[in-house]
Amino acid sequence: MAQTSSPLHHDDIALVLDSVTDARTGHSLLALGKLEGFRLEEGKLSVALAVPKEKAALLSPLCDEAAMRLKALPDVQDATIILTAHRPAAPAQPGAARPPAGGAGHRPFGGPPADPNAPVLPGVKAVIAVASGKGGVGKSTTATNLAIGLAQEGLKVGLMDADIHGPSLHRMLGTAGKPEVHNGRLQPIPVWGLHAVSIGMLVEEKQAMIWRGPMVMGAITQFLTDVDWGELDVLVVDMPPGTGDAQLSLMQKVPLAGAIIVSTPQDIALIDARRGVSMFEKMKVPVLGLVENMSYFCCPNCGHNTELFGHGGARKEADAMGVPFLGEVPLLATIRASSDEGNPIVASDPDSEAAQAFRRIARTTADALRRQTTAQ
Fold first, then answer.
1. Is 60 a known ligand-binding residue?
2. Which of 88, 103, 155, 238 has the smallest count of CB within 10 Å of its CB?
3. Strands 189-191, 194-198: parallel, antiparallel or unpaired by DSSP?
4. In which band, very low, low, confident or very high, does the pLDDT at 176 lie, cut at 50, 70 and 90?
5. Using N-to-C axis directions, what is the helix angle for 139-152 and 353-375, rounded to 10°?
6. Closest CA to 140 of 340, 280, 313, 354
7. Is the confidence at residue 89, as pLDDT, over 50?
8. How far apart are the first and last CA of the chain?
9. pLDDT in tens, 204-263
10. With 80 as the cut, is the pLDDT of residue 110 above it?
11. 238, 240, 166, 169: which is closest to 201 by C-alpha?
12. Phi and psi of 244, rounded to 5°?
């Protein structure tokens, strides 16, 4: 179905179709069919959805519900979903490549699918994940300053924002504008000595990313396969908090050289940090270590250190779990201010106490990666 000039985007339609689910199977309408196109003329929206012929009757109620939700989109007064025949896939031949798992059929950014036999990140020597068991512990701030610190150690570094629902790296890096596309491949934005991509660079900042698991995994797959990362010593991936679809999808796509877990000192955060360590260990991913963020507050007036959230909890936890402790990062207003302003502290004030803390973590991480390379 041809698309006329319209304020709607393919992703807008896909999000609505993905929000309507079959109560029996839990599958969304988008997962059960294939969005082939849409047309918006004089307020009337027509959406073409390819589905297996034998399922058309069962999907009709879902289509009615989706049509009602589509009416809430801008400039849409009425909506209709047209079901088209979708041939079932032919049986796989012996030795034929299977489509990759983890929502690879979902391509929220559009474009032709990547060759399933093409290598993933062929020019990247190592991929490390920066993760946390819960939100609000400064994971993205740590990932940003760690990546820049690794670049300052002489490594070629990429930074990928996999926190689809809460992207913030574009703001912390101070980037403006969207990445360019060359020959169908997204070009990372060069900034602060590294190359970065975030979904925050591709969508409006106020747009809510109301995506279910398959869409999230599809976005991560596209960041891995559709971005021209080039030759890198290390790709740092800022993971969303928790232990869900995004983490599993990444580990299914690429072998991780290691994971760094960020936590604050208090017990409630360390409980979630343990879950993060356990997840990576079960997936046979080396845990490079724990970082204790917001370790202490240094008063800017008198210089006195106050342990607002306790102190040393992450070090003790690392010892108990038998993983390295990478270091402490203080709770300082300058870290918050530099992140809000798009001037990461490691780059904007490299001699500060905070920057030196991140530099020590980056140096330890770089040494661990070099040892891995030597061992190989």
1. no
2. 88
3. antiparallel
4. confident
5. 70
6. 340
7. no
8. 52
9. 666 655 565 567 777 888 888 889 999 999 999 998 876 666 777 788 788 899 999 998
10. no
11. 169
12. -120, -150
Is 206 labelled as part of a ligand binding site? no
Closest CA to 14 of 107, 93, 140: 107
Q: Does 133 show up as a binding residue in the annotation? A: yes
184 marked among binding-site residues: no
Structure tokens at 217: 């995994």
Domains, the chain, with CATH or none: 10-86 (3.30.300.130), 127-375 (3.40.50.300)
Residue 137 known to bind ligand: yes
The residues pairing with 331 across neighbouring beta strands, listed in sequence order, are 297
Q: How far apart are CA 138 and CA 292, in angstroms?
A: 10
Q: Are 165 and 209 in contact (CB under 8 A)?
A: yes
**20-29, 73-82, 290-299, range with the lowest pLDDT:** 290-299
Give pTM, 2 decimals: 0.68
* Closest to 153 in 3D by CA, of 372, 334, 366, 368: 366
Where do we find the tokens 């969005």? Answer: 35
Is 134 assigned to a binding site?
yes
Residue 311 pLDDT: 56
Per the document, the length of the chain is: 376
User: Do the annotations mark residue 242 as ligand-binding?
Assistant: no
pLDDT reported for residue 313? 63
Q: What is the mean pLDDT of residues 86-108?
A: 47
Query: Is residue 139 marked as binding?
Result: yes
